[in-house]
Amino acid sequence: MAEIQEGGGGGHKGGKKRAKKQSTRVDMTPMVDLAFLLLTFFVLTATFSKPKSMELTFPAPPPPDQKPDEIKNGITFLLTQDDRIFYYEGQFRAADDDKGKKTSLSELNFSQESLHKYLLEKNKTMHDQIRALDDKHKKNLLPDTTFKRLVKQAKSDKESYTFLIKTDDQATYKNVIDVIDELNINVVGKYVMVDIMKPELDMVKEKLGTQ
Predict the structure, then answer these.
(1) Strand-strand pairing, 191-193 and 162-167
(2) 25 Cβ partners below 8 Å, 6+ apart?
(3) How many of the other CB atoms lie within 10 Å of CB of 92?
(4) CA-wise closest residue to 162 among 68, 50, 76, 59
């Protein structure tokens, strides 16, 4: 609040009345109070950044005397050094047998025209289903609870692919996170992280030429 102080200086000079000197002093107390009120308001109403978490699925290990079940519609990613991604589809076979041929590894990379495109093509049916549900939801033809339930059902469809992520000791955490990000971007509903098997590791080393 501003105050006007009148200075002395009365008296006459040359028969004329002398003007009184005036000075102003600004009281900053109300301004400080307002600043603290605003600070308190913003602190109480601000949304602090929450820690982000990533959901991972780890299957229960089978008993030692039980052979692992054959994976239907399975795609396995093998991550290794130099940001390289090898993969194969279906059940792993170390050699030809009566159920199929020996597994051969193909390779992907982290570009949009490689891993992203591959996942998009493999997940096209689910993409179309979820896009159709989303259109109905936006038009208020599906309530929120029904929409979420149907999306969850589409992601867990038995006919959809299950992606297995495996790494050797040369892969980086960044590679794992990047693959999982791509899976989430492409609305993949079923993916797990499991340990790499020795025959798979041997094939990766053979591809790298380090065996």
Answers:
(1) parallel
(2) 2, 3, 5
(3) 17
(4) 76
Q: Which value, to the nearest 10 degrees, does the dihedral of the CA atoms of residues 138, 142, 146, 150 take?
A: -70
**Domain hosting residue 130, numbered range:** 124-160
- The verdict on residue 8 lying in a domain is no
Task: Please tell me whether residues 148 and 211 are part of one structural domain.
Answer: no
Q: How far is CA 147 from the centre of its chain?
A: 22
Tokens encoding 186: 């492409």
Q: Tell whether pTM > 0.85.
A: no
Angle 117-110-71 from CA coordinates, rounded to 5° = 65
Looking up tokens 């589409």 gives 154
Query: From CA 122, how far away is CA 38, in angstroms rounded?
Result: 53
Express each pLDDT in 95-124 by its tens digit: 888 878 899 999 999 998 999 999 989 888
Which of 197, 126, 195, 134 shows the shortest CA–CA distance to 161?
126
Q: E-strand spans in the chain?
A: 2-6, 12-13, 16-17, 22-26, 74-79, 85-89, 106-108, 162-167, 191-193
Residues 19-30: tens digit of each pLDDT = 666 666 777 777
Q: Residue 136 and residue 195: Cα distance in Å, rounded?
A: 41
The count of domains in the chain is 2
